[in-house]
Amino acid sequence: MDDPLSIVIFSGTDDRLTAASxxxxxxxxxxxxxxxxxxxxxxxxxxxxxxGRGSALSPEASTSGAAALNAAIAAGQVxxxxxxxxxxxLGEVEIHACAQSMEILKLQPTDLDPMVDGVEGxxxxxxxxxxxxxxxx
Amino acid sequence: xxxxxxxxxxxAKGLACPMPIVKTAQAMKGLASGQLLELLATDPGSTKDLExxxxxxxxxxxxxxxxxxxxxxxxxxx
Lengths: 137, 78
What we know:
The structure holds two protein chains of two kinds.
Chain A: E1 5-9, H1 14-29, E2 34-38, H2 40-44, H3 63-74, H4 80-90, E3 93-98, H5 99-104, E4 118-120, H6 122-129, E5 134-136
Parallel strand pairs in A: 1-2, 1-5, 2-3, 3-4
Chain B: E1 6-12, H1 19-29, E2 36-41, H2 46-57, E3 61-67, E4 70-76
Parallel strand pairs in B: 1-2
Antiparallel strand pairs in B: 2-4, 3-4
């Protein structure tokens, strides 16, 4: 069996979440298992009451680039939450919330989007990553 | 020579990466071994992506061609 692709999603901006969702979908299409750990602002973006919307864009976004991406998001061409859901239907994609971030942000599992499979600690995440690649976004 | 019979067609024209391979993987799930799938795409990365997808998943890429801005691929379900 292939090693999983492990992705730590730390950032909660729509551009970084979109990039992470592309990796997840690509790996799922290739048949690679994907394990995602949500931390801090990445976790906040998966709150059920956010309806899959992150917060603005990364500070390095240019004015014209930001306008183009925001237009694509508004037109429905880019929707990272939908891409993650599609990845989960396509392959073996697990999304876990970081236990420490859950405590700091005072979140309960019921506060999160149903596509989040559960809460995980760091040792569990690292052990499951094995010798596979780990991305930090 | 017999014409290859296409069992399923996926039109991914206008869709950006990774949608061509995502839609290909979705559609291939519904095919039986030996059946053919045709994919049309305009994503400029799709040729290399489909070659990599075929190699990684073991589903042979039978045809790969380009007509203007449209790439056409035929894959056989393993």
